[in-house]
Structure formats: structure tokens, C-alpha cells
Amino acid sequence: MVFWNLIGLLGVVLAGVLASFPVIVAHVIGHGFSDATDLICLTIGFGLFSSLFAFTFDRCDEQGLIRSYFVLMKSSLYETAWRRSGVAWADPRNSGFAFHPQRRLCYFGCPLVLNVYILVLGSVLAWCWRAGTNDLTTTHAQHLTHLLISLAAAIVATIYGLATKKRRLIPPLAASRTIS
User: Fold this and answer.
1) How far is residue 25 from each of residues 115, 145, 178, measured CA to CA in Å?
2) Distance from chain centroid for Cα 74
3) Are the beta carbons of 64 and 169 closer than 8 angstroms?
4) 77 in any annotated domain
5) Total of domains in the chain
6) Does 161 fall in a domain?
7) Is 174 part of a structural domain of the chain?
8) pTM for this one?
């Protein structure tokens, strides 16, 4: 089962283009990096831009940053299962929580908003693994720099998410239309 939607695909493509632009420009003007640094720059840029895209286009009727995304993910899973199965028991209106048709979540494999945080987790794990194995291909300072840059990208995405929290909020449905 493929888990994506059209706006999530658009976010992935746009984030990929925006993330690859600085690397391509650096190679064109002759200041290219090593292949590993290029890949790290691309992944950090992709994680940041895809999260910013998701924070811009996602909509939920719940307050908060984390709580709203739990509701969005649960709603999207029920809705996806219902649309693909076509059976009545999978109807999201009978799922035990309020179904809201205006909720929107950008996802492509996973919700795009999580990409920058998955990147930080991967960066921490890679830094710990390389420090433990005493890998001599790159220096400890380079790994620490990549970790700090991915943490900075996560902080920027979180600040943007908190700043756009009210923009993502949609009005709740009337109680007569809410099924719980």
C-alpha cells in the first residue's frame, strides 16, 4: 500500500528542488563540496523545507503543535483505510473520534512535518555510531557540525510551526455533525 497524497508529493518535489539548489549553485561556481557533504546538505535542506511546507499547508481543528498532529495522523489513517477498502465498518465517521472533512495532512510515506525530526534522530544515531567505531574517514568535528546544523534546522522548523499554529487551526464542526 502506497501512503501518500497529492499535496505531500508536491511538498516532496518542492523541498527536493529547494534543497538541491544551493548544492547545484556551489558546483556551478566551482566551490563544490565532497560527495558526503553534498548528501548531508541535501538531506538537511530537504528535511527543513518539507517540514516548513507541511507546517504551511496542514490544517486541523485541534489546538497545539503535537496534539494536532496526532489527530491529523489518526484521521488520515482512518480516511485512507476507508477510501481504499470501501467497506462500511472503516468509515471514518464511525471511528470513535470527531471526523472533520477540512483536516489536511501532507504526507509522503510519513507526515512531511516529521522529516526534520527524523533527520535529527538519524544525525544523533550516526554521530554516536561514528564516535563509537572511531571512523577515520571524517573528523569528529565534522560529525558534530552536521548534528548541530540538523538541530538548528529542527529548531527553525519548530519555531515556524509555533508561529503558524493559529493559521493551521480550522473552526470545529457543529456538535450536531460531530460523531464520536
Assistant:
1) 24, 22, 51
2) 16
3) no
4) yes
5) 1
6) yes
7) no
8) 0.82
| Euclidean distance between CA atoms 120 and 112, whole angstroms | 14
In angstroms, the CA 8 to CA 28 distance is 30
Task: Find out whether 120 and 149 touch, Cβ atoms under 8 Å.
Answer: no
- Per-residue pLDDT tens digits of the chain, which is 180 residues long: 457 889 999 999 999 999 999 888 888 887 766 777 788 888 999 999 999 999 999 998 888 888 888 888 887 777 766 666 665 544 555 555 566 778 889 989 889 999 999 999 998 888 788 777 766 566 777 778 888 999 999 999 999 999 999 999 988 775 444 444
Angle between helices 140-163 and 115-133 (to 10 degrees): 160
Phi, psi of 96 (to 5 degrees): 95, 0
Residue in this structure with the C-alpha cell 489527530, named with its chain if needed = 71
- One-character DSSP codes across 90-151: G-GGGSSS---TT-B--EESEEGGGHHHHHHHHHHHHHHHHHHHT--SS-HHHHHHHHHHHH
Which domain range does residue 109 map to?
A: 6-168
In a 3-state reduction of DSSP, which class is residue 4? strand
Residues 6+ apart with CB under 8 A from 169: 59, 60, 61, 63, 68
Q: Is residue 180 part of a domain?
A: no
For residue 5 the three cell numbers come to 497524497
